[in-house]
Amino acid sequence: MFGLLVYGVGWYYDYADTGFRLNFFEFPLLPLYMAGLAGSVGIILLAKLVGYLPYFSFIGRYSIIVLLTHFPITTVLVRLFPDNILLVTILVLVLEVPVILVAKKWFPYLFAQKELLPLPSDSL
Predict the structure, then answer these.
(1) Surface-to-core class of residue 100, CB atoms within 10 Å of its CB (0-12 exposed, 13-18 middle, 19+ buried)
(2) Alpha-carbon distance 32 to 124, whole Å?
(3) CA distance 32 to 10
(4) Residue 30's closest CA among 46, 13, 47, 44?
(5) Which residue of 8, 64, 108, 118 has the lowest C-beta tally within 10 Å?
(6) Quick one: which of 79, 64, 5, 63 has its CA closest to 38?
């Protein structure tokens, strides 16, 4: 019920014209923070409800690779499929798996899969 209330407040204020880069807001900030907090709590509760999902666990473990590569992949796919954002989202989620596997194999030092400077075992 709280989620519907926060959604209603967000819809009422219509955050689409929010200027985060310019720090320009034409509405009170409390509903914005309430919506952000409710969204975060909702995602946490949904994750607890769903439990373990192997695909998302794999993506989450290598999220730095996804963070670095999703924008170029998305840019290319949006130019190929400009009117189908759902297809672009699904393709990005599918293409990230081979990107992660290639990055792990060919660039293990960049993504902390191997020690760049090995430490002696007695230093810990």
Answers:
(1) buried
(2) 45
(3) 7
(4) 13
(5) 118
(6) 5
Q: How many CB atoms lie within 10 A of CB 18?
A: 15
pTM above 0.70, yes or no: no
What would the pLDDT profile of 61-90 be if each residue is shown by its tens digit?
A: 888 899 999 999 999 999 999 999 999 999
The tokens describing 25, both together, are 């807001």
Q: What is the pLDDT of residue 7?
A: 62
- Tell me the two tokens of residue 21: 């880069």
List the chain residues with pLDDT less than 50: none
Q: Among 7, 64, 68, which residue's Cα sits nearest to residue 34?
A: 7
Distance CA 33, CA 54 (A): 32
